[in-house]
Amino acid sequence: MLVLGDVWSGLGSALSPSNVLYVFIGVLVGTLIGALPGLGPAATIAMLLPISYSLPAEGAIIMLAGIYYGAMYGGRISSILVNLPGDAAAVVTTFDGYPMTKQGRGGAALTISAVASFVGGTLAALVLTAFAPILATFALQFGPPEIAALTTLGVLLAAYLGGKSTSKNIIAAGTGVLLASIGLDPIAGSPRLTFGSSFLWDGLNFVAVAMGVFGIGEILYNLEQFKKSGVEQKHKREDGLGFSVTRVFPTLGDWVQSRAAMVRGSVVGTLVGMAPGAGAEIASMVSYAVEKRRAKYPERFGKGAVEGLAGPESANNAGAIGSFIPLLSLGIPGSITTALLFGALVLHGITPGPELVEQSPGVFYGLIGSMYVGNLMLLVLNIPMIKVFAQMLRLRIGILSPIIVLVVMVGAFSLKNSPFDMGVLALFGVVGYLARKTGFSMGPLALAFILGPMMETAFRQSLLMAEGDITIFFTRPISASLFGIIVVTVLLQRLRVLRRSNRAH
Amino acid sequence: MEFSRAETRRRYLNGIIPLVIGVGAVVYAPMLSLGSLAKPGPGLWPFAVGIVVVLTASYLVFSEHRAPERDSASFAGIRPVVYGILALCIYIILFSWLGFIIPSAFLLVYWIKVLGEESWSMALGVAVPVPFGLYILFDVLLGVPFPEDLVTASLGL
């Protein structure tokens, strides 16, 4: 249950000099790296994970969370100023953000984005503060059948919401589960899929896999694109990127138009972000659709409509923080980035889930407290630095990429002080690159990699409990309801696909 | 929709490669013992997941030819990517033998000068200080125990 004393203590912990410093570093570094075109929050966190290894658990997760929302905002900078989204969630930002830049209002767009992100993030943090402990208390009643149902729902949602092709997402998720099976069997303890190699007895390290597919994979893809665009890009670099940021503050009219959109976006984002597998990307798209539908003159959208920027930006940050709710209270990552944070917490010996509130209240409430501090810091830091961030975009990716490669390589080595993990990193860098080329989304793979072992243990324990009677999943009320949601989700998805193909014909 | 032979082959491979992975899991899993529903063995879970992957990949083999064309699908520009991957593999080997600084400097020079098409001054300007800076950050300040480094050993550090 929510105890105000714990919340207050969490805020106090977040305001300690060391934690404020960690938030500051996280937000600043996240924004700087996230501002670079082609590097989204997942890649940014994957690349900067190594920096957190030597920090205490609370400080590490606070800094990484700061990197997350810093990178989210940073991705807006390249979206708004040069029409280059750093990740899926930033695509929506280009619809009205970039037209504002072309109208000479790039600074105003960035300021609205910063304020909207603050509003969305703060409102979502309030919901997280109130709701997560309640959900965690409720989840303590969950047994293996409920956990099996919840993790299945998480993997399924990741597969359906992960990218354009559902079948490719299901394959990616299935592959993630198989990869997670490598190592010692969680119940029998015998080696499985290790092919006689002792290096694989501990299984593949999620952090090495994630840094590979999201970090190295992204860099390899950008390398190909850089070489492809060649001469044109080189001239662009020499002439500048064709934008200027002079006026930073929006007009009074902009504020009036955007304030309601910010609140609506916060609500949409928090609700969508809470659904396992959904995350900020879906939140920003849903918010844009809502704003366009509500607008008196929807034809303004796509041409610099302030609500088309404010709503999704608010939803984006709200969704990002909303995705912490299933992570902290249920132990189910709500998005790719929270899956990375899950991996980081495990590295520090902390397992997110219903017991987190009781066993590590300092981490739980300290993280929540840091979200308020981090969101405020984002606002205070970023508005004065808009012109500095704009200059960052002139930094050449050909110089920065190999430095990032080195940092990530060191990060992989330091997991177990073994070059084996560097090899895993490089291998999954290739996988990540090939996945980008062939339309396979790596988000479902990453989420399934995290959830797969939980799913397997839960299913096997349930069957052991019920002596092989699979009706156990459908006779317990909570797991029956969750499996019911799974069935409805699958049927709705099939119906949508059928309707789409009928319309096409 | 008509595609080139290369594109058609790529589209089939998108389904065939996962199909091979799924079949591999389905064939290998029984060797681990499937057990029974009352007492699931280590192989039951990979077997079940393998079946899902096989079924979905089979569907993909037949449906992928109907998917819309994507600009990113062409592998025409893959050569620098292959060079980048080879550079990473060589780096990992040299890292184990020579430590952090020298292999990192070589990687930076190669990536910035050859792959990044920057000038020699830029490549050397980054390749000399950055490895030392990262060495100090990770080995000295953060305590990551790198393999014995040729440069620091010869400097007596």
What is the secondary structure topology, with strand pairs?
The complex is a heterodimer of chains A (505) and B (157).
Chain A: H1 4-14, H2 17-34, H3 41-52, H4 57-82, H5 88-102, H6 106-139, H7 144-161, H8 166-180, E1 183-184, E2 191-192, H9 206-239, H10 252-274, H11 280-294, H12 306-322, H13 324-330, H14 336-347, H15 356-359, H16 361-382, H17 386-392, H18 397-416, H19 419-438, H20 442-465, H21 472-475, H22 477-504
Antiparallel strand pairs in A: 1-2
Helix pairs in contact in A: 1-16, 2-4, 2-16, 3-4, 3-9, 3-14, 3-18, 4-5, 4-6, 4-12, 4-14, 4-16, 5-6, 5-11, 5-12, 6-10, 6-12, 6-13, 6-16, 7-8, 7-20, 7-22, 8-20, 9-18, 9-19, 9-20, 10-11, 10-12, 11-12, 14-20, 18-19
Chain B: H1 5-28, H2 44-63, H3 79-98, H4 101-115, H5 120-127, H6 129-141, H7 150-154
Helix pairs in contact in B: 1-2, 3-4, 4-5, 4-6
Please explain how this structure is put together.
Chain A contains 22 helices and 2 strands. Chain A has helices at 4-14, 17-34, 41-52, 57-82, 88-102, 106-139, 144-161, 166-180, 206-239, 252-274, 280-294, 306-322, 324-330, 336-347, 356-359, 361-382, 386-392, 397-416, 419-438, 442-465, 472-475, 477-504; strands at residues 183-184, 191-192. In chain A, strand 1 (183-184) and strand 2 form a beta hairpin. Chain A has 505 residues and is an all-alpha fold. The longest helix of chain A has 34 residues, at 106-139. Chain B is mainly α. In chain B, 67% of the residues lie in helices and 0% in strands. Chain B has helices spanning 5-28, 44-63, 79-98, 101-115, 120-127, 129-141, 150-154. In chain B, helix 3 packs antiparallel against helix 4. The longest helix of chain B is centred in the N-terminal third of the chain and has 24 residues, at 5-28. In chain B, 32% of the residues are buried. The mean pLDDT of chain B is 85. The chains are: A mainly alpha (505), B mainly alpha (157). Chains A and B meet through helix 8, helix 9, helix 18, helix 19 and helix 20 of A and helix 1, helix 2, helix 3, helix 4 and helix 6 of B.
